[in-house]
Amino acid sequence: MRTPVKAALGVLALGAAGLVYSAWEAQNFTLRRATVPALSAGQPELRILHLSDLHLVPGQTKKKEWVRSLRELRPDAVIATGDFLSHLDAVPEALDALDALLDIPGAFVLGSNDYFAPRPLNPAQYLRGPSQLEPSRPMLPWPDLVAGLTDAGWSDLSNARAVLEVNGLTIDLRGVDDPHISRDRYDDVAGAFSADADLALGVVHAPYLRVLDGMASDGADLILAGHTHGGQLALPGVGALVTNCDLDRKRAKGLSSHQGSHLHVSAGLGTSPYAPVRFACPPEATLLTVTGR
Predict the structure, then answer these.
(1) Matching CATH number, 3-292, of 3.40.1110.10, 3.40.50.300, 1.10.10.350, 3.60.21.10
(2) Domain ranges of the chain
(3) Is residue 26 pLDDT above 80, yes or no?
(4) Over the chain, what HEC string results?
(5) 132-166 pLDDT, tens digit each
(6) What pTM was estimated for this model as a whole?
């Protein structure tokens, strides 16, 4: 066999192996842990479970069971940063997955995929900049999702504020609707966080700089976001190739900082149903332990 043919077969075999591995990794749900020194000295620790980008469709039993198992962590609060849905019939799936956590104090924002049904996209589009929403995409029943979560006691932070009393601590929260589809209205919630709160917490789905800047300027101790999928496809030693927003690639996932605030971006738990793969970026939830400075 000629050498060029062997080389071509080798490339095909490597590509097939990579695709198989990427499909497996997309189901390799991982719990991350991080410590955030954001409370006053002497305050008790606060354990926050950060969930994001479940992208649920009917039949994802393994993912739902894994999310339910997170109750065993006994978090003090749960914050979900959007993109619960990826299917017209996914609202019952999302509420079922979260059911074991809904009696824990919580709050959430929505993402673009909670509003609009997914559709296939050319992957090369993400290399050219943030994806653009086509207005022809059908709407999902997001009001049913909001009703289910708020009826259970979680706070909807879509361009709104809330206060949680958790573990003897007061959390002053504010959030915005998804900046990726220009639904954010930070001016509606802007202003200094409460000086009496033990933790000032900002919540957003897509970590666009205009929102991060506003929250940090107003004194957020910690900002939580999702959307990026950690790049979804990453290269060892390089990291995320894209963030699908204007956040730099080095902060596509994990704990970093932004203008004096702690920033945690979750790589999320799901994928688009049209691209059910991940590489060097397994799906995740994160248990954040907030401690004294």
Answers:
(1) 3.60.21.10
(2) 3-292
(3) yes
(4) CCHHHHHHHHHHHHHHHHHHHHHHHCCCCEEEEEEEEEECCCCCCEEEEEECCCCECCCCHHHHHHHHHHHHHCCCEEEEECCCECCCCCHHHHHHHHHHHCCCCEEEECCHHHHECCCCCCCCHHHHCCCCCCCCCCECCHHHHHHHHHHCCCEECCCEEEEEEECCEEEEEEECCCHHHCCCCHHHCCCCCCCCCCEEEEECCCCCHHHHHHHHHCCCCEEEECCCHHHCEEECCCEECCCCCCCCHHHCCEEEEECCEEEEECCCCCCCCCCCCCECCCCEEEEEEEEEC
(5) 766 678 999 999 999 999 999 999 999 999 999 99
(6) 0.92
